[in-house]
Write a structure and sequence with these properties.
Elements: H1 13-17, H2 31-42, E1 53-59, H3 63-71, H4 74-80, E2 85-92, H5 105-122, E3 126-130, H6 135-142, E4 148-157, H7 167-174, H8 182-185, E5 187-188, E6 190-194
Antiparallel strand pairs: 1-2, 2-4, 3-4, 5-6
Helix pairs in contact: 2-5, 3-6
Bound molecules: flavin mononucleotide (FMN).
């Protein structure tokens, strides 16, 4: 199965190879590998170098994993229960230096997770980000302080076989990856005038 990005211009191999599987191999990821991933995330850029990102991680078989799985919507639970690790990403809502609202917290968390996904690819791992979870369950299951906003859930591990997925998910696992064209997103001179 080839899920590599079919680019118009040459890009970095790791970016080409990153994708979001739903089928994961039944193979554990070690605590050391998780620390590798989050160390990479730590080096993302952030507004005022606030580093507003925080993560909770569970490894398959532990209580944290089960508590994260419990927060996902059923449609995500049905495939994410095969991941080797589950993670939640949070954003600190205010800047530490002056307590004003940090409008870029989600942007910054997103950059740290994007960096993590590239590190994961380099380690032979894959990650699948999810918006389909209940924020109120996250707050309840983990005693999260009010200052921290749940922003994303992530499933990760070694990529598995599409055949091991239930019918509902197999087709998209095998489907060709799609993207908008450069002319639809990159402008010059005026709005929607392609570069
Ligand atoms: C913020 C965010 C939320 C997402 N939410 C879900 C989700 O709840 N369930 C799911 O199966 N995929 C989810 N995805 C995965 C996207 O559908 C996927 O990244 C997109 O189709 C592009 O595919 P690729 O990552 O393989 O390139 C999410 C991705 C992001 C970045």
């Amino acid at each position: 199965m080839n899920k590599e990005a079919n680019t118009n211009y040459p890009i970095n191999e790791l970016i080409k190879k990153r994708w979001s599987p739903r089928s994961f191999e039944d193979k554990a990821v070690t605590p050391g590998q998780i620390k590798n991933l989050v160390d990479a995330a730590r080096w993302a850029a952030s507004s005022y170098n606030e580093q507003p990102w925080r993560f909770i991680v569970g490894l398959k078989g532990d209580d944290t994993y089960d508590k994260i799985l419990d927060c996902l919507v059923e449609w995500n639970q049905n495939w994410a229960n095969g991941a080797a690790f589950l993670m939640l990403g949070f954003g600190k809502q205010h800047f530490s230096h002056n307590d004003s609202i940090n409008r870029h917290r989600a942007y910054d968390l997103g950059q740290s997770v994007a960096t993590m996904t590239i590190q994961a690819t380099d380690m032979g791992l894959h990650m699948h980000q999810m918006a389909g979870y209940s924020s109120s369950k996250v707050l309840e299951n983990f005693n999260v302080p009010e200052e921290y906003e749940p922003i994303v859930a992530i499933a990760g591990g070694y990529v598995g076989k599409p055949e091991d997925l239930a019918d509902d998910y197999r087709e998209s696992e095998l489907a060709k990856r799609k993207r908008k064209g450069l002319e639809q997103i990159l402008f010059h001179g005026d709005w929607e005038k392609p570069f």
